[in-house]
Amino acid sequence: MANLEDAKVVASQELSNSKATWVKMERIKYLDPMGKERDWEMASRKSRAAKSDVDGVGIIAIIESSKGPLVILQKQFRPPLQAICIEMPAGLLDPNESVESCALRELREETGYIGKVTYRSPLMFNDPGFTNTNMYLVFVSVDMKDERNQNPVPELEDNEFIETFTVPLEELSQNLERLSHEGYKLDARLQSIASGIQLSRQFGVR
Amino acid sequence: MANLEDAKVVASQELSNSKATWVKMERIKYLDPMGKERDWEMASRKSRAAKSDVDGVGIIAIIESSKGPLVILQKQFRPPLQAICIEMPAGLLDPNESVESCALRELREETGYIGKVTYRSPLMFNDPGFTNTNMYLVFVSVDMKDERNQNPVPELEDNEFIETFTVPLEELSQNLERLSHEGYKLDARLQSIASGIQLSRQFGVR
Lengths: 206, 206
Known about the structure:
The structure is a homodimer.
Chain A: E1 8-14, E2 23-31, E3 37-45, E4 56-65, E5 68-78, E6 83-87, E7 90-92, H1 99-111, E8 116-120, E9 124-125, E10 134-142, E11 162-168, H2 172-181, E12 185-187, H3 188-203
Parallel strand pairs in A: 4-10, 6-12
Antiparallel strand pairs in A: 2-3, 4-5, 4-7, 5-6, 5-11, 8-10, 9-10
């Protein structure tokens, strides 16, 4: 079996817009709120479908076990980080695909689990000062009484190497801290969800 | 007073690495976990300080009021989104600046509030398939008994136009949904925190 630890970056070089397939850079001219013209530099994805305003989805898939809710997480080597990242299942929208279909498809392909959408967040932007890349968070419930979830088998593409695991939702934050200390990199959306749970606990939010 | 609604993008053009000051693109060669050589395209910031592995911080600043905890939020025109974005206070690290100092400085400059750091998250990556940009989440407590917090005065730079407001932590998620419906764009880290609070509530996490 492939070992994620064996993946590594061996070289990198400057990339121009004309040679790039997936990413691009732009200089924007904008009028600030006082009417003064200013410049801004940004990067974006070229993969967004024509006429779409959405790049992708992130999936909070929850298994309700007898010991409490478990959240499905992934380890994946990410070349931009030169490291293995801890993430939620996620993916880019296919042309004409709905957000909900995309979430269920990506969950099935990446983890093997069949789920049901319970909530979709508003559209959210990953790093608004730097890029327009965006995604919806989709909450998905995974019913372990469904026979198809007894032996989930991912259908990974030949360039995808993903390890799936679960942690108790209640202990998400502690688990991410531990994984970060062990050298894994953390996805910001996932760590922010963990921080939200932490804030809830700290301030007794009901 | 400047009206954020008046800001707008008037033009954009392709930007090359050699003409960019703040952003860059690279093609990476990496070995996948099976030892096969593959390509990946990525964007990143040029502003990261030499020898640093960190771009910036996001600040969850909490005012403990008699009516419960309030979270400090911002409206800011973001050229990459061509829209006003709802965000937490945030900023990039100055060279040799600590994460905690940066958080307290940015909070003071952007909102006028003086705070105390109560927690720092592990480092987290904004969009790991696309870029290596990253940040720490820093929780900051704002004591309203501190006289300096009675009339907070931001110290904005001449290219910064930021409106500060607060919402009850408990109602963060509903407020973000409403603002999104009103046409504001949402920062993903902030919306993910709101989703974490929502998950806590839904699953009765203690």
